[in-house]
Design goal:
Blueprint (H helix, E strand, L loop, with lengths): L5 H4 L3 H19 L10 H4 L8 H15 L1
């Protein structure tokens, strides 16, 4: 899986950094970056309101109840 022996990689600081950079690059390449938001999509044109989410409303009510005590 690893093209070189890990015992020799970590004997040299610069080789270890190069190896780690390769692992990070491979992970980024595999997972990919976030797609750019589309200006015409419905998500980009609407703003989310905290009162629209029932869980946030419930949390807000619980915080208000605690503050009143």
């Amino acid at each position: 899986m690893i093209p070189m022996r890990t015992q020799t990689v970590f004997k040299n600081r610069w080789m270890a950094l190069l190896w780690a950079a390769g692992i990070i690059w491979a992970a980024y390449d595999f997972a990919g970056g976030l797609p750019a938001p589309d200006a015409n999509s419905a998500d980009a044109n609407t703003s989310s309101n905290a009162s629209d989410d029932p869980q946030i409303a419930q949390l807000s009510n619980a915080v208000s109840a605690i503050q009143q005590q």
